[in-house]
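Person: Please work through this fold.
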Amino acid sequence: MTVTQPDVTVVVGAYEAMPYLIECLRSVEAQTLDPARIEVIAVDDGSTDGTGEYLEEFAARAATHVTVIHQENSGGPSSPRNVGLGKASGRYVFFLDADDRLAPEALERMVAMADRNGTDVVLGKVEGINRVPPKAAWVQTLERTDVFHSNIKFTLSAQKLFRRALLERHSMRFDESLFTGEDALFTMEAYLRADGVSVIADHICYYLVGRDDGKHVTKSGSYTLRFDSARALMNLIAEMVPPGVERDKLMVRPFLVTLLPQFGPKYVGDSERVRRHKFELAKPLMAAHWTPEVAVRLKVDERLRLQLVAEERPELLLAVAEFVKSKKRPDAVVEKRGRRVYLAYPHFRSAAAGLPDSVYLAEPREAREVEGYREGGASVFLRRVARKVRRVRVRRGWSRSSPRP
C-alpha cells in the first residue's frame, strides 16, 4: 500500500496546557484541509495537569493521523518543537502553540499560497485574543517577498508555515540553550535562507491567545534572558548578512524589540544594581552592532536611549526613561525654514551632556506631525551624517571617540 505524504505536519508542543489545549486541538479538527493531508505530532513536555492524557484521547478519535510523544519537562519550547520536527513527514511544518488556535481555513490557504508561489515560508495573519498581536507584517498580502523588502522581520514567532525541505537541508533546529527568543532566531534564519516568503494579510489564520493565568512563556523569565536573545539574534544577522544597508535594516529589529524595552519605563523601576547589570550586559552588544546606520532608522526617543547606553551614560538615561514613561510630548524645534525638526527630549542642547543635535533630529515619519515641517531635509541630513561616520569607521574603526550619530 502506498502511503501518501501529508501536506502539513502540525507540531504541538504542550506543557500544562489545559484547558486551552481543548480549543487548540478543536481548531486542528476544524481545518478545511482534508484530514488525510494533515499529520499532528504532539509532544507533552512533562505536564502534570492532564495535558498528556487529553492528547492521547484526541489521538484515539481524531480523523487525522496523530502521534503523541511524552517526555520529561525540558524547561522551554525548543525541545518539544525539535522532537516534533524530527518526527515530521509533511511537505510543510507548522508550529502550533498549545494555548493558541488555528482559523478554519488556515492550513488550506497557507499550503495553497506556498504551492502557488514556490515560497519556503508563509505568514498567516494573526489575531489576538486577550493579547495584542504584531501588526506591521500584515499591511498587505504579498505573494512573494523577502526579509529585506517587507516588514516580516517584526514577526519572528514560530507560528509560520515552513517548507520542511528547507529546514532539513540546513539542519535547522530551535536553540535549546535559549529560554526566550528561540523562535526569533529560528525564524530569522528561515527568512534569510528561504527562496521567497509569502504573506497572507486578508484572512485571519492564527489566534494568539492570552492565558488568564498569565503563564504564557513570553511574559515570564529574567531580564537577562532578553539580553541572551538579543545577543543570539544580532550574532546570527552579523554572521549571515554582510555589512551594509541590508544588515542595518535587520539589526533594527533586535535593538528595537528586544533590547530597547530594557531601557524604557521598566528601567525607571529597576534597582541601581539591576541598572548597572543591564549596562554591563548591553556593552558588548552596543560595541559590536550599534552603528550610525542603525541609529538613523529609529525614532528620536529610541535613538537617544540607545545612544546613551552605547556611551555608558546611565546618569543621563534615567531622565529620558522617566520622560518616556510619563508619555509627555517633547517640544519641537523647527529650523532651516522648516526642513529640520528637533524633538527636545531631556538633555537637548545641554552643554553638560554634550550630545550632538543629530541624535534629536526627527526623521520624516515623526517630523510630519509637527506644524511647519517641510519635507526633504532631515532624512537627507541624517543619512549624510551616517555615511560620514561610516567612512570614519572604515578608516580607523568604531570607538567612543569617533563622531557620534
